[in-house]
Amino acid sequence: MKKNYSTFLAILLTFLAISSLNSCVNAKKLAYFTNLQKDSTATIDEQRLQTKINVSDILQINISTPDAITTAILNSSTAINTGQGGVSGYLVDETGSIKLPLIGSVKAEGLTKIQLASSITETLLSKQLAKVPIVNVRIVNFKVTILGEVSRPGVIPVPNERITLPEALASAGDLTAYGKRDNVLLIREVDGKRITKRFSLNQSQLFDKDIYNLQNQDIVYVEPNSAKAASADRTTQLIPYFFSAASLLIVIYLQFIKN
């Protein structure tokens, strides 16, 4: 009986050792900001943080004037309901324009919210449609998408129209242990063109204005590291051993309880 118990214990320990091989990840590869200097300072360029309007953006535009009737017309129901969770506004069409009451077509693509508001104000004044107009513009469908090796991949709505890369990753539940931290991909649309940037979460490049501050409709993809591929290979290779070990454990256990 003692011999059977020793054999059973040895096989159990071997089984656990084999299982542990499938969960080894270098802890050093899980940290962020490892190559940054201890102390550093960077100036934030607020102008560069201004999001530029793109095709398919949905804009909420409120116009106030001293005349109540003019204000009512300018804010009339020409805005569309997009069906995206009840979001309504002016859709930037494929030409990069929106259509406003009294004003007509207005170019929006490539402008910031401040620039578009200024353009609408100038048009109202030049056409003598309103006196002292006040124009406010918001992007109501501001969102970023996080894909790949994160805990909760998906689309993240951004109601306040500003989000940093660390905030977006936190909203997605952070990278998994198998996320490749030194080669993250950023996909962005700029002036009708799709551009890509690759960066490391461990380098000061992360704090570049064009990376750290995400823009509307940005896509961030975290690819799997070599550990995941190796883990998948090990799992496939070890499956027969698991079944064999489990079968042997059952046989030894049955023999053990008989004695």
Structural summary, described in words:
The protein is an alpha+beta fold. The protein folds into 3 domains: 2-25 and 227-258, no CATH class; 27-45 and 142-225, Outer membrane lipoprotein wza fold like (Roll); 52-139, wza like domain (wza like fold, 2-Layer Sandwich), CATH 3.30.1950.10. It is 34% helix and 24% strand. It is built from 7 helices and 13 strands. The strands form 4 sheets. A 5-stranded mixed beta sheet has the order 8-7-13-10-11, with helices on one face. Strands 2-3-1-6 form a 4-stranded antiparallel beta sheet. α1 (2-20) runs antiparallel to α7 (226-258). The longest helix is centred in the last third of the chain and has 33 residues, at 226-258. It is elongated. The mean pLDDT is 81.
What layout of secondary structure does this protein have?
Layout lengths: L1 H19 L25 H4 L8 E7 L3 H7 L5 E5 L2 E5 L5 E4 L3 E4 L5 H14 L7 E6 L3 E6 L5 E4 L5 E2 H7 L12 E7 L2 E7 L9 H4 E2 L4 E4 L3 H33 L1
Helix pairs in contact: 1-7
Tell me the span between the first and last alpha carbons: 6 Å
Number of strands: 13
Instruction: Give the strand content.
Output: 15-25%
Using only C-alpha atoms, the radius of gyration works out to: 29 Å
Count helical runs.
7
Kindly name the structural category: alpha+beta
Question: Which residues form runs of ≥5 with pLDDT under 50?
Answer: none
CATH class of the largest domain: Alpha Beta
In what order do the strands lie side by side in the largest sheet? 8-7-13-10-11
CATH topology group of the largest domain: Outer membrane lipoprotein wza fold like
Question: Helix and strand succession?
Answer: HHEHEEEEHEEEEHEEHEEH
Pfam families: Poly_export (PF02563), SLBB_2 (PF22461)
Domain Polysaccharide export protein N-terminal: 50-139
Organism: Mucilaginibacter gilvus
InterPro entries: Poly_export, Poly_export_N, SLBB_dom
